[in-house]
Design goal:
- By secondary structure, the chain is mainly α.
- The protein has 2 domains: 108 residues, no CATH class; 223 residues, MetI-like fold, CATH 1.10.3720.
- The chain is built from 16 helices and 4 strands.
- It has a two-stranded antiparallel sheet with strand order 1-2. The protein has a two-stranded antiparallel sheet with strand order 3-4.
- It is elongated.
Length: 345
Amino acid sequence: MINFILRRLGVMLLTMLCLSAVVFSFVNLDPNLRKLAIFNTETRASDADIENWLVRNGYRDNFVVRYARWIGLAPKQPTIDPSTGKTVPRFRFCDEPTEPTFSGVLQGDLGCSTALRAKVSDRLPEALKATGILMFWVMIVMVPISLLIGVLAGMREGSRLDRGLSVGSIASTATPEYVSGVIFTALFASYLGWLNGSAATAQTQGISFYNFTLPIMTMAIYGIGYIARMTRASMAEVMTAQYIRTARLKGLNFRSVVVKHALRNALIAPFTVIMLQFPWLLTGVVIVETMFNYKGFGWLLVQAASNNDIDMVLACALISVVLVLMTQLISDIGYAFLNPRIRVS
């Protein structure tokens, strides 16, 4: 098991390096760099002024050198003021050093947010905390309900209960977040008037039932159907196994067979599916947080992309890659512990 974990960690590091290089190359395309230069100079700046700003701030250096600076393997070079000839920080509002220094991802420096005019490391933790709270409650709601639906449907394969729950699961999975969010808002907030707030007030007045219900419902409704379908398929397969038939022939009642014999084996496959919901939740929070103006990780990513905030986009992409790879590693380790056959092989 230790060798397996070490191999996976090595693959994760290589994957992170490759994906970060791909994202870095796309974010640093020439149109994006020109927009950044215009944002930090003035809208009427000439092409020569824009090009001079990019050259002074190191954006025209070799791609490998710029990527190494962002990672922290090469020293960042300060900007030289053309009027005085002295070195000045690239962005004054971030208190960047005026001397060449190693300051990148490996040193904990994620760069400077040009849109928010602050260090990325100062604004990102607050957004991640807000999104973490949202994702936690989504999982609390989504996992038990989906497992219950899947187990009930798989216990009686082909019954009316199975068909009804399966239709509901398919319908919820086929409904994207931006559709269910609009439906829930129109139904509960506008038509019935049950919810007198929105997710935006959660940032200023604290989280409550009224301002947190719609985002959770919107994100959970899609995942419930998907996990329920996977659980139902696994439960239906287990219920036809030979050891289940043997237990029934021994005279055990149906409830004991399901709880003591079928349920544990049926939940092995859904465990992997549940762990893989975390990467999906990252894409879900982008839509939901923007829709409900909930200022978390997804909202921050959209704002950074809209304002061509290069360092913030890179930091968000890096965190997304780390989260995806970590959840996959935890999923593989958990699956090996739950399934002895995998552990032996």
